[in-house]
Amino acid sequence: MIRKHFAGFAASALALAVSAQAFAGTVTTDGADIVVKTKGGLEVATTDKEFSFKVGGRLQADYSQFDGIYTDNGDSADAAYFRRAFLEIGGVAYKDWKYQINYDFAHNAGNSDDGYFDEASIAYTGWNPVQIKVGRFDPDFGLEKATSSKWVTAQERNAVYDLIDWTHSHGNGLGAQIAASLSDSLYASAGVTAKDNNSEDGESTKQYNLRGVFAPLHEAGNVLHIGANYALRDADGENFDSRFRSRLGMRGVDTAGGNDAGANGNRPVFGGFNNSADGSWDKDSAWGVEAAWATGPFSLQGEYMKRKLKADSAALDDIEADGFYVQAAYTLTGEARGYKLGRFDQLKPANKQIGAWEVFYRYDDFTVEDSNAAASVTRDAGDTEAKVHNLGVNWYVNEAVKLSGVYVKAKTDNVYNAADGVRTGDDDGDGFVFRAQYVF
Question: What is the dihedral of CA 212, 216, 222, 228, to 10 degrees?
Fold first, then answer.
């Protein structure tokens, strides 16, 4: 039996080598027959579905230009960078075991010490409809995060996510998650993550996530989706970063993978501070609700989120934030956005000559309440707020190539930019982002 399984692996590897070098001939095995697919990457699989191996990836090259609140001095700056450059390897072994490894050559995921992995996980699917996954992967939180970066509508996810980025980031640690899909309409997941930052005793930060989705309508062009999320993590570690900050939809102010705005890029801080003393904070929690509706080429979605960082020191008060986004998208050429339970999926062009054209608008809005913060060169006392408008167009040239452009306008209250310790005074800014994406 073991020899048969190894024969499956060997045949898959041989088929890969043969197809890559374009040699003619026949590949045989004493196990199941094999199938080689080259559309959308390279996949080799046995016909009995016991084994498969697929190589794919995504490349997202961005150029952006911005001014005002997005830079320290308020003048125009630009950035050209790889937002993502993933090599993705995944497949199935012994039918019930799935594996996935995504490595980011743009270095926007992970770090040099822990590896630039977006994901490295193993999942057991033998207890259908329950799936158990372990390894490094992002925790489950929110509709936009559940949707792959290949198929989110705007280039960057909503600005409120930045305030709660820990809820949907693996933090270079390892996690375990159990998820189940029932009757094509119900989805639920629960997970725990041990993140790569420790207390003074070497205890890793623990995070817990819950997500539930009900989608009575769940087909492309006919979607009704509602969901709820909750996340909780320890915040009592030494040097805890309590900052509530956002790039306001403009990744180029501070990113890896190439050139950003450098020292002149401004990523505003709306509350909190870095390197907190041990014992400053207790728990950090966030919850959110999500909803989406789609009919034909039109889709409407939104999320509301709230975060509370609980103080553990008499000298500090709790910090709270809440916000939402609403997004509308319409495909001019008539195609519907794909949908899989819990997330939106690929939009496939019907016309191979002109592709698919989509227009969208998204509005982001959030408020941060931090009575610990005093007036400074970058903020006034009191609550801070931000509003971001995103207006864009996506051209799905074919199933592999997508070209996107978006205009972004941000407005802040009680938050400003500053250069060389002197307030510049901008509380709004404009910018645009262009992306060329290739998926295989």
Answer: -20
Element (H, E) at 12: helix 2-21
What is the separation of C-alpha 403 from the centre of its chain, rounded to a whole number of angstroms? 19
Both tokens of 221, joined, read 């062009």
Rounded distance between C-alpha atoms, residue 354 and residue 117, angstroms? 36
| Beta carbons within 10 angstroms of residue 6's beta carbon | 11
Q: Token pair of 105, please?
A: 């050559």
Distance from C-alpha of 50 to C-alpha of 45, rounded to nearest angstrom: 8
**Alpha-carbon span 241 to 235, nearest angstrom:** 9
How far, in Å, CA of 299 to CA of 18, rounded?
44
Provide the total of helices (H) and of strands (E) in the chain, helices listed first.
Answer: 3, 25
Structural domain of residue 237, as residue ranges? 64-77+140-146+153-244+269-439
CB contact set of 183 (below 8 Å; sequence gap of 6+) = none
pTM recorded for the entire structure = 0.90
Whether the ω angle into residue 268 lies within 30 degrees of 0, i.e. cis, is no
Instruction: Name the residue among 134, 203, 213 with its Cα closest to residue 170.
Output: 134
Strands (E), 312-427: 319-331, 338-340, 343-345, 356-369, 384-396, 401-413, 418-419, 422-423
User: What are 283-306's pLDDT values in tens digits?
Assistant: 999 999 999 999 999 999 999 999
Q: What are the structure tokens assigned to 197, written together? A: 């930052």
The one-letter amino acid code at 331 reads T
Contact 151, 270 (CB under 8 A): no
CATH number of the domain to which 336 belongs = 2.40.160.10
Flag whether 219 is in a domain: yes
**Residue 435, in any domain of the structure:** yes
Q: If you ran DSSP here, which 8-state letter would residue 68 be given?
A: G
Q: pLDDT digits over 7-58, tens only?
A: 443 444 444 444 444 444 566 666 678 889 888 788 898 888 899 999 999 9
Which tokens sit at 289? 């609700």
Question: Which of 303, 312, 323 has the alpha carbon at shortest distance from 284?
Answer: 312
Q: Which residues pair with 87 in a beta bridge?
A: 57, 103
**Is 82 inside a domain boundary?**
no
